[in-house]
Design a protein that fits this description.
It is built from five helices and three strands. By secondary structure, the protein is mainly alpha-helical.
Length: about 140
Amino acid sequence: MKNSTFEVKKSSVLILRMMLSGIFIVASLNHFFNMEKTVARIEQANFGAIGQLLGPPEVAVIASGIVMISAGIALLIGFKTRWAAILLLLVLIPITLTIQVGQVQSMGPLFKNIGLAGGLLFFAMNDLKFRKTSESTIKNKQL
C-alpha cells in the first residue's frame, strides 16, 4: 500500500476523540454501579455464554469496566490513543457478540456498536502526528 498523507482539522479529531470516549466511560460506570443489571443482561442474552468465558459473568463485567474506564480516559485525553482504541475494540467485540447479536427486535444497538467500532478503528489504524501545518490542521502520514 502506498504511503499517503491527508490534512484534517485538529478540532475535528479532538471532538471525535471526546465524543467517542464518552460512551465507554459512562458504560464503565454502569458496569461498576449497576453490576446486577449488566450481569442479568448477559445471562438473558442469546449468546450469553460468551460473557461467561472468563468465569462468572461478574468477572467479565468488572474486567470490561476496568478496561473501559482506563482506555476511555486515555482516549479522552489523547494518551496512547492507538492502544486505547485497540483495547476498547477488544472489549467492544465480545460485548457486541454477547449482548447485541441475536437480538432481532433491537437492531439499533448493534449498529451503534458497529459505528463505535468504526470510530475506534480510525484511531487504531491512523498514526496521527500533530505537526503544525497551519493553525488548525493536522497532517497525518499513514505508515
